[in-house]
């Protein structure tokens, strides 16, 4: 870490750069802003969670309702993440590797869940599957009730986390073009072989991050789940909902204890992102080296 | 295996990339598709490979009389070398070359041992056996090019297709590699087509040169044929530098710069406008008048290009520059320096009338 | 023969039909049918009822004012400080820079309920930060200022992450050229650097705004939720739903949905514009 910083410092201060005063002021402002909005809240979560000691912390997590919430959250993610991963891979393949009309429109549509309030998602679900909804009464005839069940949670979470894998993969696949795939096809590979042996290894880091981010969002989904779950303790409470219930019951330490697990998940996600970005940058460098100018003269060997 | 395509059309939206192209490549022949960018040469190569589909109504694509137009790229068994090689960046050189064998259906897939042998044999053919454990990013441009070639050849393709195979390399490696490719071709005798925009490369390496422009084939023939006998002004201008003189053509003679030059193919011309072409190396240069068919010009610039010297000259009161190329020896023998007045006589002139220029496309299609 | 000759250019790669079919089917079921359903439900309402419940109601209007106002303010704060953060991350080196760069994405990964309770505690009168404002008689948690704080956090990564790549692409030669032509550092910034980053800043601003508009989880903790004062529009949707006033919930949702969609279109327009500008 230290030597990379020094390395970049040596080359990073251009002659036309800002004066040290400006530089220090701006760094201070930026760090102050991030500190106030991101770092302090993060520190606070862990400090509050451990305020009454490690014992209380673990008791709060081991409490049956907390465990039920953790279990439900894990099950939801276990269903939602694979489905949206399949969707993301399929959508990225169709969008990134082919030219067709309406492509940018389709990308906009995929982004829509970003801009739609989770509360509206929950409302739509209630309108469709509620006791007086469009489909609810028909399903009730077959004894199927979706609203206020874990199934409802899964469905709204599917909606909310739909874009994440696709969004990671599309730019990556577009940047990589189709030359390697074409090459594999000329060598007699089938479509699946081409995808499995060529495309997938090339986007594996982006895919991994998409999956991790999708997972974090699935586990943290709040607004829509709040509306459709009914918030029945021990049954339809996910971790974020459980945090809310505990907090509103003035069980602050317990609330922060469960919240700290989610915060940890977020930190793991960020770490994964940093690693993946580094890997992608490295792969891209290798790729541009592999496609472009020769790094070493002919016959001479690179390390 | 011979390749034959008939009446191929390919359009991208409103843009016509291939306009009714027919081409025959003899068995074992190394053919160059030569043309400027946008001439349709790469599209033609990709249509032959099956990477593009010709428009409906196009004729057949025959590999040894068998129509492959309806088959997929994998079924055609072509060796295709991409312009930027398209090596699999996450595989070693060995795995890159082995890929085409490993993906075969189980029934026809060689055993692991056989694959290893074949790959090593192929790598030794391209002289890269010592690099089999490397990744593409660790190779030089020329080495990657050879890996791409080995990868294409190991599947025992029926034909070899190369898209700008030397395009991404620097000048020296380029020259070495194209000679090496020529020798390799002489060894394996695989019917091959390569695309290039570099006339020098096409003329040096290929058995036959096919010149394309604006989606059509303009001329084809041996390198000597097309160089010595360009069919129309486009080919003439494309194959090397030329000097262009506006002239009048009458009864087998072209008139320009007060010169009269024979142009036997225009026996019946009646004072039409035309263009006379002279290549820079086709001038005789002297301090004394060289008879009736020479004119005087002033040396304006001298460029030394190593083995040759290029002069830029202008006629009295004229803006047009004339380029002349001499060998170093000739240049020294004449003792020419800047500002000298000298006499020029074209040794070889090719004349096209304006009428022929307009017709050149239609005639080249016959 | 290609069955869709006009829609798609031919490609040798297989699987377009399968993947595109699945993509459209999935999006149809998960996204489009539900949205169409909502619009259909809104269409069942009379115009008068829609107007009354979705727009003209005083409590609803107050909620819109707070939601749009606080989102706009939050996005503006992010526009300014996000730009500075992006600048610092691209142009300067300092210890821990990689860590700072990573932490910017925290709002993407941290569940909103968690950031909600954390901010509320932090900015409460007795909180680590809130107590310093209390000295000046300024209360943050349970006021509209708290709403702005929460919405700023939610939209924080957008401006940074759109400006960062644009700033990286900006060739230092352009700045050197401006300096060589005699421009002061300030002139170079206002006349050369900032104009070329403006599309990115605006895109980030719009994304941040759109994201904040629909936010629910982090705001409800810190807002205080006083009707007509600190009640955001998404919360009002939930309240209407709990009162079984479905039409009221639908009307407010449609207004928010249309605003979000317009913002999305604006963002796309901005991106198209900036691509054209880059040539």
Search tags:
heterotrimer, A: 303 residues, mainly alpha, MetI-like fold, 14 helices, globular, disordered N terminus, B: 366 residues, alpha+beta, six-stranded mixed β-sheet, five-stranded antiparallel β-sheet, 29% helix, 33% strand, elongated, disordered C terminus
Q: What profile does the largest beta sheet of chain C have?
A: none
Strand content of chain C: under 5%
| CATH class (first level) name of chain C | Mainly Alpha
Helix count, DSSP H or I runs of 4 or more residues of chain C: 13
- CATH-defined superfamily of chain C: MetI-like
Write a brief structural summary.
Chain A is mainly α and about 300 residues long. Helix content of chain A is about 80%, strand content about 0%. In chain A, helix 9 runs antiparallel to helix 11, helix 11 runs antiparallel to helix 14 and helix 13 runs antiparallel to helix 14.
Task: Explain this structure.
The complex is a heterotrimer of chains A (303), B (366) and C (279). Chain A is mainly alpha-helical. Chain A is built from 14 helices and no strands. The longest helix of chain A is centred in the last third of the chain and has 40 residues, at 252-291. Chain A starts with a helix and ends in a 12-residue tail after the last helix. In chain B, α3 (93-102) crosses α4 (112-125). Chain B starts with a strand and ends with a helix. By secondary structure, chain B is of the alpha+beta class. Chain C has a single domain (52-278), classed as MetI-like fold (Orthogonal Bundle). The relative contact order of chain C is 0.14. In chain C, α10 packs antiparallel against α13 (246-278). Chains in contact: A-B, A-C, B-C. Chains A and C meet through α1, α2, α4, α5 and α6 of A and α1, α3, α4, α5 and α6 of C.
């Amino acid at each position: 870490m230290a030597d990379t910083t020094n390395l970049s410092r040596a080359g990073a201060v251009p002659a036309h750069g800002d004066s040290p005063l400006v530089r220090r002021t701006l760094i201070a402002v930026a760090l102050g802003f991030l500190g106030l909005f991101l770092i302090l809240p993060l520190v606070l979560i862990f400090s509050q969670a451990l305020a009454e000691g490690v014992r209380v912390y673990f008791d709060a997590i081991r409490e049956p309702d907390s465990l039920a919430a953790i279990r439900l959250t894990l099950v939801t993610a276990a269903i939602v993440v694979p489905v949206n991963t399949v969707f993301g891979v399929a959508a990225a393949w169709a969008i990134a590797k082919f030219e067709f009309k309406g492509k940018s429109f389709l990308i906009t549509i995929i982004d829509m869940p970003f801009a739609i309030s989770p509360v509206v998602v929950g409302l739509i679900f209630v309108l469709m599957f509620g006791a007086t909804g469009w489909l609810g009464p028909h399903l009730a005839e077959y004894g199927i009730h979706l609203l206020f069940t874990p199934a409802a949670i899964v469905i709204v979470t599917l909606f909310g986390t739909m874009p994440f894998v696709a969004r990671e993969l599309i730019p990556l696949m577009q940047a990589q073009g189709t030359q390697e795939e074409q090459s594999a096809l000329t060598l007699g590979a089938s479509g699946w072989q081409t995808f499995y042996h060529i495309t997938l290894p090339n986007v594996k880091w982006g895919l991994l991050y998409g999956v991790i981010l999708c997972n974090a969002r699935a586990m943290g989904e709040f607004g829509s789940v709040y509306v459709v779950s009914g918030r029945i303790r021990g049954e339809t409470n996910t971790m974020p909902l459980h945090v809310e219930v505990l907090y509103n019951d003035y069980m602050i330490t317990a609330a922060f204890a469960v919240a700290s697990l989610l915060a940890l998940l977020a930190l793991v996600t960020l770490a994964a992102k940093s690693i993946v970005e580094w890997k992608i940058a490295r792969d891209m460098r290798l790729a541009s080296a592999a496609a472009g100018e020769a790094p070493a003269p002919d016959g001479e060997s690179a390390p | 295996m011979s390749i034959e395509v008939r009446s191929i059309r390919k359009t991208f939206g409103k843009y016509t990339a291939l306009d009714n192209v027919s081409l025959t490549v003899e068995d074992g022949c190394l053919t160059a598709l030569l043309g400027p960018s946008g001439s349709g040469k790469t599209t033609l190569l990709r249509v032959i490979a099956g990477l593009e589909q010709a428009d409906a109504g196009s004729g057949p694509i025959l590999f040894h009389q068998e129509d492959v137009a309806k088959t997929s790229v994998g079924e055609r068994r072509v060796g295709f070398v991409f312009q930027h090689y398209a090596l699999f960046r996450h595989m070693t050189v060995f795995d890159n070359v082995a890929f085409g064998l490993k993906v075969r259906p189980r029934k026809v897939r060689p055993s692991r041992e056989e694959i290893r042998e074949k790959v090593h044999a192929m790598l030794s053919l391209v002289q890269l056996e010592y690099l089999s454990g490397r990744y593409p990013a660790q190779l030089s441009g020329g080495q990657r090019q050879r890996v791409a070639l080995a990868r294409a050849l190991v599947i025992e393709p029926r034909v070899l297709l190369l898209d700008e195979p030397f395009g991404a390399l620097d000048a020296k490696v380029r020259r070495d590699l194209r000679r090496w490719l020529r020798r390799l071709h002489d060894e394996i005798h695989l019917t091959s087509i390569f695309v290039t925009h570099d006339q020098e490369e096409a003329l040096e390496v290929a058995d036959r040169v096919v010149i394309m422009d604006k989606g059509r084939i303009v001329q084809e023939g041996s390198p000597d044929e097309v160089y010595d006998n360009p069919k129309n002004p486009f080919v003439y201008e494309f194959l090397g530098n030329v000097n262009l003189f506006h002239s009048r053509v009458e009864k087998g003679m072209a008139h320009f710069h007060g010169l009269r030059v024979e142009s036997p193919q225009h026996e019946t011309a009646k004072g039409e406008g035309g263009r006379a072409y002279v290549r820079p190396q086709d001038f005789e240069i002297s301090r004394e008048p060289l008879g009736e068919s020479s004119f005087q010009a002033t040396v304006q610039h001298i460029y030394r290009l190593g083995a040759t010297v290029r002069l830029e000259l202008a006629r009295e009161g004229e803006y047009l520059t004339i380029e002349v190329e001499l060998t170093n020896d000739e240049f020294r023998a004449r003792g020419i320096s800047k500002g000298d007045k000298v006499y020029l006589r074209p040794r070889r002139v090719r004349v096209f009338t304006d009428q022929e220029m307009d017709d050149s496309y239609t005639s080249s299609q016959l | 023969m290609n069955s869709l000759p006009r829609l798609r250019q031919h490609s040798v790669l297989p699987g377009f039909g399968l993947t595109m079919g699945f993509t459209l089917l999935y999006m149809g079921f998960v996204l489009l049918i539900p949205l169409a359903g909502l619009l259909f439900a809104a269409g069942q309402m009379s115009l008068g009822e829609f107007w009354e419940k979705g727009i003209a109601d005083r409590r609803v209007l107050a909620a819109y004012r707070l939601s749009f106002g606080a989102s706009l303010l939050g996005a503006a704060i992010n526009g300014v400080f996000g730009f500075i953060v992006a600048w610092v991350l691209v142009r300067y080196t300092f210890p821990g820079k990689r860590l700072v760069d990573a932490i910017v994405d925290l709002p993407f990964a941290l569940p909103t309920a968690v950031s909600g309770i954390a901010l509320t505690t932090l900015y409460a009168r007795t909180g680590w930060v809130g107590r310093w404002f209390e000295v000046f008689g300024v209360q943050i948690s349970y006021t509209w200022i708290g709403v702005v704080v929460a919405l700023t956090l939610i939209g924080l990564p957008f401006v940074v992450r759109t400006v960062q790549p644009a700033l990286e692409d900006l060739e230092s030669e352009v700045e050197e050229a401006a300096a060589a032509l005699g421009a002061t550092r300030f002139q170079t910034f206002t006349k050369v650097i900032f104009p070329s980053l403006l599309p990115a800043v605006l895109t980030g601003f719009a994304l941040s705004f759109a994201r904040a508009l629909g936010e629910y989880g982090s705001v409800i903790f810190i807002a205080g939720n006083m009707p007509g004062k600190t009640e955001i529009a998404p919360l009002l949707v939930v309240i209407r739903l709990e009162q079984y006033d479905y039409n009221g919930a639908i009307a407010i949702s449609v207004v928010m949905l249309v605003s979000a969609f317009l913002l999305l279109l604006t963002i796309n327009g901005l991106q198209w514009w900036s691509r054209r500008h880059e040539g």
